[in-house]
């Protein structure tokens, strides 16, 4: 189990990232993920910068849909921590129980057809190559 | 390599599914995935019924976003066939190159943080458990 | 691409394994998998010994079912080489097209329910813990 | 953590599935998997229908072997819930401890050779392509 | 949950492996992994022999780096037990916290670029094929 | 198949990254991975910055070992492109054929024990939790 580094115990380098997390998310709460990464400041900085850019900079995919995509990946990989944290984030951004059900149905179906495509060794159609 | 069963050579049972695929998708084209599954009619029927329901019945997630989620899973699993076919489907439903880029960035980031959460053995925060 | 080491070009150490493969499988054919592993003789020896023991020593699971299990894993992992070689082996041991279809249906279903169990964060029932 | 929907609290739609699960399995017990899926009735119905068909309709693969294949997939994916529930189901259908040991050996070996085939970038033999 | 077979309760066959583990590792401690595998002695013997050869026979990759590679695989697969045990082993062999941080950064980055390569369907450069 | 953006056709934004790749790697060659990511400049920039930092900034893990770890992840995930490109990079940095063989043996073994730990549902030893 990794040591979790609290705000009070953080170095200046780590605290700067924590402050940006707090400002970006408009909450004092720092979740365990960042407290664990703080054991290696370059990884903390790089990962937070990436997550912030990818999840919060305005773009063509809206913030809630980004969370759904994040959940889809995390469920496929079976990452318990990420499923819990991003499901929580998605509910906070307006996901309904029904939308979560639809999401799970898509993820389940894609995991099924991925294996059928593998198992039947299906060649890619010419129309999909262009 | 699996034998691909063409429309002309299909049994009544398979042809009924092919006809429904054509009607639902408004095209005569049947892609290789279904032609391969036709070797086992119960799997063809069940899989098509599931895909049709999950991907086309109106719900809270719009059709383009469903394709993005499908791609996210397929990319995470590394399923070449499904990546090619659903990327093609997403473009047909209006995905822009930029949106695809955003999608890839989210998928890449989630795959990164999934492993960091695993590796640092991070306990799930109490706030994410309710 | 790895160099494939042919029987004629093999060292004594590698040739001893090749001879055992030929004797065990009752064919002169050595497939590419072993010709590639021959680049690292300890891996060739260890892997062949394991595969021979696990797949051919008489036990409670019959040889054809062992191949089906091997395919199930390979399809889940998306290993093209292993899917092709073990599907071929299964047909040689008596798998019918219909049995392959049933196998794919089970693999597809398990991949679906694995993700639903992940996504819904379902606690293991007490009855399954004993 | 998903809310688990008990039989007593279920809607007519959900209860109909629960009743079919009870009748098919000849037990009043409904395990947590279904109680979680009940949060999204279409997913509950579709998943139960698929599992029932794939796991219980008579076919060429016997019921115990179907469970072994299910376990092989679940172990490869690392799905804790599915490993626990299907291992329990397999024991109920007559799996011996020794058979479980043989199964694990095959799953372990396939996971090994899948990676060796990937890593050595081994081309598929012509004989496996037909 | 598997029964763990203690040294005192082990058969001669299992005890011989336990003794070799103790001698090789210079400790009386047998960790749960081996106590679980002891339920199927052939798997215990084969797995221990493989782990001992692969992890302890002198070679070109030093013992600590072997542990880092082991962790990289285990983190990618999300195997909680193996992450915990091999992280512990790596610290015992001299891994620093900073080295662990560097390792996690590489694992995270590889998991990211693996998916970008999949998603963008990037053809392998000619220069990488020779 | 993604369009590959050549140096000559690149925007200023993309070209700045290409120039940094060339300078860092001391070669004019830009491999397909970057030419594909160039379709989404923010992903190109972020990914290159991460790869450069993680793989080239001096640290406690030497450059060749970083490549071995990269290969271990890519082989576990089955990413053909990344296996080919990083195996090539590792040979360029001094990997011997024998070292590659040792690496494959470790990756194969870890993939085996990961599944045995999953399948036997082995509880983490107390000694590994601190």
UniProtKB/TrEMBL annotation, chains A, B, C, D, E, F:
Gene Ontology MF, one: peroxiredoxin activity
Domain Carboxymuconolactone decarboxylase-like: 42-121
InterPro entries in UniProt: AhpD-like, AhpD_core, CMD-like
NCBIfam families: ahpD_dom
Signal peptide: none
Protein name: Alkyl hydroperoxide reductase AhpD
Domain of life: Bacteria
One Pfam family cited in the UniProt record for this chain: CMD
Source organism per UniProt: Chroococcidiopsis cubana SAG 39.79
């Amino acid at each position: 189990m990794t040591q979790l580094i609290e705000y009070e115990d953080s170095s200046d380098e780590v605290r700067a990232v924590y402050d940006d997390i707090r400002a970006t998310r408009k909450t004092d709460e720092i979740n365990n993920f960042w407290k664990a990464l703080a054991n290696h400041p370059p990884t903390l900085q790089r990962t937070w910068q990436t997550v912030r850019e990818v999840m919060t900079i305005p773009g063509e995919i809206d913030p809630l849909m980004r969370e759904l995509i994040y959940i889809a990946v995390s469920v496929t990989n079976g990452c318990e921590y990420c499923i819990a944290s991003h499901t929580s984030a998605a509910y906070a951004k307006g996901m309904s129980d029904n939308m979560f059900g639809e999401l799970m149905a898509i993820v389940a179906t894609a995991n099924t057809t991925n294996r059928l495509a593998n198992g039947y060794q299906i060649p890619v159609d010419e129309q999909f190559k262009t």
